[in-house]
Design goal:
It is globular and about 60 Å long. The chain is of the alpha+beta class and about 230 residues long. Helix 1 packs across helix 2, helix 2 packs antiparallel against helix 3 and helix 2 packs across helix 4. It folds into 3 domains: about 80 residues, no CATH class; about 50 residues, no CATH class; about 70 residues, Roll (SH3 type barrels), CATH 2.30.30.40. The strands form 3 sheets. A 5-stranded antiparallel sheet has the order 4-3-2-1-5, with no helix packed on it. It has a 5-stranded antiparallel sheet with strand order 11-10-9-6-12. Strand 2 and strand 3 form a beta hairpin.
Length: about 230
Amino acid sequence: MTGGLPEAGMASEQGGGSELSGRLLSFLKQYHLSKQDDAVIAMLKDISAGGRAPRKLGNWGSVSADEVDGALEAFRQWKTQGRPGMPGRYWSRTYSQWLECVVIRQNPDGTLLLGRDVEASGTADYVHPSGIPENLEAREVEGWFVPKEQASPEMPKEQVLRVIADFDGSTIGPEYLALNKGDELVFSHQEDGWAFGRVLRRIGTARLHHDLQAGWYPPDYARLQS
């Protein structure tokens, strides 16, 4: 496999006309590879102007709601268009195994042209000329959409907490976390008696298969790690 797409090119073109939106789009794509994009989306909405806890995004500075909305819309379009440029694994029914690939483009019929790398230009370079989208999953490759040293903006030191008691937020609402004792959280902020955080590590399967990765929880259910 060759390296990933450059940050500025494809991302800035689809980022809603804003350089920062383009960077945020690349950031979202990179975290999509590790299935953490939902948590990043929640964080961006939270810290943008008008969000629950507006603050500067490290050396990227303040982020407006319009810049976040532009990045999110471009991200939705990218997924609708088949996630071009994404490294993935394709389940081959012919070979009964996963094949590493890169999405070249979406075909008119909705199937995907899958190549061995981003520069695939002929049938010999194709993994599948008309892959079924449902058979494709993202494949995590460090530094693919964003160079490793720029994988995230400079952020304040994270406050990591350990969950001290089980909490099933799914009985309250879809925006509440389900946690097991021993899970680790990154604390974001507190509001109206609830804490907002992102799951850093789970000790097992989330309760009731409620796999929300960022949301609300009772602040006294988690403590700073010693």
